[in-house]
Amino acid sequence: MFNIIVSGSTGRAGSTIVRFLRERGFRYVYRYTANLATLPLCANTIVIDFTNPANLNSLLRSSICYRCKLIIGTTGYSKPQIALLKQFAAYIPIFISSNFNSTFLLYLRILRYVNNLRSGMAAVVVETHNLNKKDAPSGSAKLIAKVIKVNNIFSLRYGNEIGTHALILSNSCNTITLKHKCLSRRAFVDTLPYVIKFLLGKSIGFYTFKV
Q: Mind listing the domains of the chain with CATH numbers?
């Protein structure tokens, strides 16, 4: 038996995660409270956090205290915070990614292949999110930049845009645009069932998707 506790469950991402997992047959999904001790904990308790980098210390403190497994989709962490997460992974298993969308992960693999063929074409990343998106560039845009090795990222914030990322390649004669557009917030979490099952078999370690 295992329990799933969703941090930030009243927010857009958190409420989406709770509904998505319950609809996928995960029976024991609970909303996070200020004190983990008030929730039903067991040997395989998984905490899912898609909130804010400012919450990291309290998240780690609670998780290490109750030996919880961590799945983190929060973006905007600093390098010292990432280093801290890796230190804690010596005691509990932690899976972290800027994007849990299976189609976006496929998009990254396509970009990696294209990057090997672009032969001198200039590259620019343009990413668009809604006005409430706090970090810019987004974690997903940073993943794209890492895959194609480019520093030019333009971030747009307006309306209710869920998330669009475009790679623009150009030379003096041609332009190629490769775009991924998210149409539903549920797409952001569609790999969670697989990550949960993966993490259940781990006792320690720092993990992410290979792209």
A: 3-99+187-207 (3.40.50.720), 102-181 (3.30.360.10)
